[in-house]
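Design review, sub-item: ligand-bound model
Attendees: FS, YL, KQ
YL presented the inputs for the adenosine-5'-monophosphate-propyl ester complex:
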Amino acid sequence: MSDNIESHLQENRTFAPPAAFSEKARIKSIEQYEEMYRESIDDPDTFWAREANELKWQQPWDSVCIWNPPHAEWFTGAKVNITENCLDRHLENGNGDKTALLWEGEPGDKRSISYRELHHEVCLFANALKNNGITSGDRVLIYMPMVAEAVIAMLACARIGAVHSVVFGGFSADSIKDRLEDSQAVAVITADGGWRRGKIVPLKANVDEALASYDGVKNVFVLKRCENDVTMTDGRDMWWEDETAKVDANCPPVALDAEHPLFILYTSGSTGKPKGILHTTGGYMVGTYATCKYIFDMQPDDVYWCTADVGWITGHSYIAYGPLLNGCTQVIYEGAPNHPDFSRFWQMVEEYKVSIFYTAPTAIRAFIKAGDQFVDGYDLSSLRLLGTVGEPINPEAWMWYYNKIGGGKCPIVDTWWQTETGAIMISPIPGAVPIKPGTATRPFFGVDAAIFDETGQPVGPNEGGKLVIRKPWPSMLRTIYNDDQRFKDTYWSEYEGVYLAGDGARTDSDGNFWIVGRLDDVLNVSGHRLGTAEVESALVAHPAVAEAAVVGRPDDLKGQAVVAFVTVKTGIETSDDLAKELRNHVGKSIGAIAKPDDIKFASTLPKTRSGKIMRRLLKEICATGKISGDTTTLEDFTAIAALQK
Ligand code: PRX
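KQ shared the predicted structure:
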């Protein structure tokens, strides 16, 4: 992490927005950005009402924002349906025949879906849900591959006011079960399987395993994707195709309160149990609409591609909702970036003439490692804007992306935000704000970002501190589902009425924000959030394990790698086989992304006199192989001596 700061501090390269880009962009100069930013902070109600008025409401709001820290309500009194804005609005504006989705499966199968067709499919599936008794407010768990039906399922829930909770297809049966229990879901939408690197991920089988110990689910809708064998339980499991054949496509968008829950998305925190982040309808809609419009500068003829999965917040805000709210044409790809080889993305950029491309630094680093031969020869001239998300981008990866992929002519929007923030919070406005490798630059409209010291005072330029947001914003999380106390404790207890992001950051003298990384026990592995406590509780649930401490080690490719220090129970022999078994055990409890890269067996772990594991020391051992920091509170030095060896 400190290497990161050092290299960023020395980063002087600045790239002004290309004139050709700014001319056509919505926001054309830094002055224009600054003027709009000032208005958005000084008079947020006027700013957000103007944005909201570009969308369709079934009943207007009484107040734009009511702020009772830490609880916000946006567009109170209004009635709205987000899918009416994602779909019906475009049909009414004569854009029904415009392509909404250009979908490609991993094996190469393709589908092009117009806004009219998408509207039809969403209405059909929404009626299928209704026909099975699912109603407004019910929680529905979605566990799907990256097929068009994943988006259709989300929108169908939103159409009738059901609250979706999407679980990433790489998560395990145990993870599904935890999320079912926490959200008390009544239905599941899944597929027989999904393609990943030429293999079938057994999605339905994972759902079956989860449902063996949770009996709240009345209906499981199963899409045929891979035609793999699945077991269908009578009276509970039904085929998507059969259920949609039973209904018509007349499904008016239900008028919902602006604060009606839209979705719950689980994310890792610093304790073992993932948090159900709750987002609501009106504010989330306006936030994702406006950020797509200004940050991706979406224009009518753009072809946009975000490579995320709908299992993460990026796939919610910047695949399922934001681009559709803007009436954009977007590419959706089912599989892995390196299947059949690392040229897959660039071949698709050429084929679909992608103009806006949004991916994660970890993917960029993997492309660099694979070699330029996978990029050379593809025509990437359709690209006009690039984006990154999920973790700090190192300057080398940034420069490669800028030159090799963007041909030195595409601005890069490095977008900082979180599951909790719902939409992008800090990012360049591409036609206006000069960019530098490694900084997410300036706050988006309405985002009152600052860096605080321990006492809650803003720090000056170039001083590190905690990243906070001082004013409410439309797409902010409303609470942690069923745990408002945890919501208050996690985000609002350090500084009164101020949102604590959990990231360390600094600003430079130009007002750019440089994000350093998490300050809590949350790792960022390939752009995915993972709680060290989650991995530890999975490890200690294994019968051979006595204690476990998990830390992150800097990793060139993944950003952070997962290292687990493990002590075993008396009488257990440590071995490579046991390490392998433990890795698989974590994979089974959480999902493959959580498997430790390294398991280090230790006879004892370094603890303070009060019995707390000193993770800081373990981290340092991982990063440098030795200890230089303060060890005065350490209880037993032999633990450290053994580990250093
Ligand atoms: O540490 C920050 C990092 O990802 C965390 C949020 O993770 P998650 O909720 O999974 O959402 C990821 C996609 C929005 C943040 O607390 N992060 C995200 N974007 C950036 C970033 N770190 C640096 N630069 C970014 N652009």
